[in-house]
Structure formats: structure tokens, C-alpha cells
Design a protein that fits this description.
This protein has 323 residues and is α/β, with parallel strands linked by helices. It is 36% helix and 27% strand.
Length: 323
């Protein structure tokens, strides 16, 4: 599985420098290593976030195995927060997903907390189907902390009913029930060693895919104090090429938040195709990582100081007139 991580390159470079210093000063390797890592931990104001890009299929077992391997690899690479895309457990025909909703949701609700606890990581599990009283399903995102506790759940409120062409039409509302139209956030604890000015947790804002086109949701999440806006998605190829990155950068810029958008990519079953390009974007709108079109993982440092730095330089949130 392809993993892009600028943090790893930096660490490798720093280790090389410290080894040179060790040889010049004639001191023990153990002392150098302790000094090196203690100095990083003491001054670190970052966490590592991973956006997982999958090619999920209309097969629960296969798709969950792919998701597990991605979580395992992300944790091995040092991620504190791992985000999975929409439909990570099953991506195929909507009617088929609706019929298998109980099995899919039961598996996800069991496995995601188990993986979070096993690897000591926080996991944002993108959209998966949960049966609603109407017989339809909710398209649910779930945030689980590193102890395996479910912190918050969000049921998608904007449903994808569009006709892109005669050949490509979607009616999500045929099988999906819209959730409660309220913004949902969840807090995850920061590692104790982070030097973050007394901040003990990160607030994560939840959304799913088509929600991206409705900026008022993200403004409400920012007003609730979100540090990171998550957008797990399965964007179509036509809309992805035209709108994906520009919309994500806009949500980051206008709310001065980090945006993490794990995505589906490739072909799913006989007809469904998705765009890929999972990204992590900073509050200035800079794309820190982009997964391209192949399955893989992108990882970036989330510098907690950047949000306040950008907001102090460009305090647009406090300059709003219409509220």
C-alpha cells in the first residue's frame, strides 16, 4: 500500500544529522537517541493525520480487510487520527447496500472500536449504512477515540439526488434517510507530550461527501469550535474533476480549519466509478497531501499553531456581518 508522509523524510534527515553529531562528539548512541526524541516531543505541537484512499467493493469481507490493512499501516507510520472514506465497508448498488445494512453496520460497529483500541489511534469511519425506522438507512459517520469509545456519530443530511448525464444518475434519497439537520462535532484527546499551550483535545467536525457543497454546515461546525473538518467521500469522476479540490480548499479557507477528506477511487462493481484524490488541507488552503488516483494513504502533520496563526493574520470569522 502506497504511503506518502513528509514527516518520515524529516525524521530520517534529523537522525542522519544527529548521528554525524554523535561521531564528532564521541558520545553514546543511546544518549543521542534519547536527546533527539525528547527534544522533538518537548517542542512538538503537531499530530499526524492519515487520509485513507480505498477501492471498496460490494463485498463486506474484502472491503473490511482492505480497511483494516490501511488502519494498521497508518498506525505503524505514527498516525494519531486515521480517517476512512464514505462506503469503506461496502460500495456497490445502493439497493444491495440497503438490503445488507444490518450485517454491514454490525460489523463496522464491532470492528472499528476494536481496531482503535488495538492500535491506540482515533478513527473516523466514513459513511456506512445503519437501518432507520422507515426501512431506509442512515449514511453514518462515526468518530471513535483511541480507547475504542464512540465519541460521536453523524447521519448525512444532504442526499445526492442528481442527474449528471443520461447514463449517470443518482437518487440517494430512494434508500437513505436524511439525518437530523444539526452540526456534529467530537473531541479526541491530544497525546500528553504535545506542547500545545494547554490544549488537551482536538475538536473534529463531521460531514459526508455531498455535504461539501453546502458551506453553511461547515460554518456551523467552525462556530462550534471545530479544528478539523472531515469530509469522507465517494465523489464521482465528473464532479471530482470539476469541483473536488476547489470546494475542499474553499471550506478550509473560509473557516480557517484543517480539512481532511479521505476518498474512494477507481471502479466499484460493474458501473460505479469514483475520483480519488484524498487530501489534507491546511487553514490557509494549502494542499498538504494528495493521494492521486490509486488506493493508498496520505499523511500530514496537523500543526495546532497554524489555526491561530492564520486566524490572527486574517480574522475573517470575526469580521462577519451577516450571521
Amino acid at each position: 500500500m502506497d504511503v506518502h508522509c513528509n514527516f518520515g523524510i524529516l525524521i530520517s534527515f534529523c537522525i542522519t544529522v544527529f548521528k554525524k553529531w554523535q561521531s564528532l562528539c564521541n558520545i553514546s548512541q543511546e544518549y543521542v537517541i534519547d536527546l533527539f526524541f525528547n527534544s522533538i516531543v518537548k517542542n512538538m505541537a503537531n499530530i499526524i493525520a492519515a487520509a485513507v484512499q480505498l477501492n471498496s467493493q460490494p463485498d463486506l469481507k474484502v472491503s473490511m480487510e482492505q480497511a483494516f490493512l490501511a488502519v494498521e499501516e497508518s498506525a505503524r507510520q505514527g498516525a494519531h487520527l486515521i480517517t476512512l472514506p464514505e462506503n469503506f465497508a461496502f460500495l456497490g448498488h445502493e439497493k444491495e447496500k440497503q438490503q445488507q445494512a444490518e450485517q454491514i453496520s454490525q460489523t463496522v460497529m464491532e470492528k472499528i472500536p476494536e481496531w482503535a483500541k488495538q492500535f491506540g489511534v482515533n478513527i473516523l469511519a466514513g459513511g456506512f449504512p445503519v437501518r432507520a425506522e422507515s426501512g431506509k438507512v442512515y449514511n453514518r459517520a462515526m468518530l471513535v477515540n483511541s480507547s475504542g469509545r464512540i465519541v460521536s456519530v453523524y447521519d448525512k443530511i444532504h442526499l445526492f439526488d442528481v442527474s449528471l448525464s443520461d447514463e449517470e444518475t443518482y437518487r440517494e434519497s430512494d434508500t437513505v434517510e436524511a439525518g437530523n439537520p444539526e452540526p456534529v462535532t467530537g473531541n479526541i484527546a491530544l497525546p500528553d507530550q504535545l506542547n500545545n499551550g494547554g490544549k488537551s483535545s482536538l475538536k473534529i467536525g463531521l460531514s459526508i461527501c455531498y455535504d461539501l457543497r453546502f458551506p453553511e454546515l461547515y460554518r456551523r461546525l467552525a462556530e462550534k469550535g471545530a479544528d478539523i473538518l472531515t469530509v469522507p467521500s465517494a465523489f464521482t469522476k465528473p464532479t471530482g474533476r470539476a469541483h473536488w479540490e476547489v470546494l475542499l480548499r474553499a471550506r478550509a479557507i473560509e473557516n480557517t480549519c484543517f480539512v481532511i477528506a479521505p476518498a474512494q477511487t477507481g471502479k466499484h462493481g460493474p458501473t460505479r466509478k469514483t475520483y480519488g484524490h484524498s487530501v489534507i488541507i491546511d487553514p490557509w488552503g494549502t494542499v498538504l497531501s494528495d493521494a492521486g488516483s490509486e488506493p493508498g494513504i496520505v499523511m500530514s502533520e496537523i500543526n495546532l499553531d497554524v489555526i491561530q496563526t492564520v486566524r490572527s493574520k486574517l480574522p475573517s470569522l470575526s469580521h462577519r456581518i451577516l450571521k
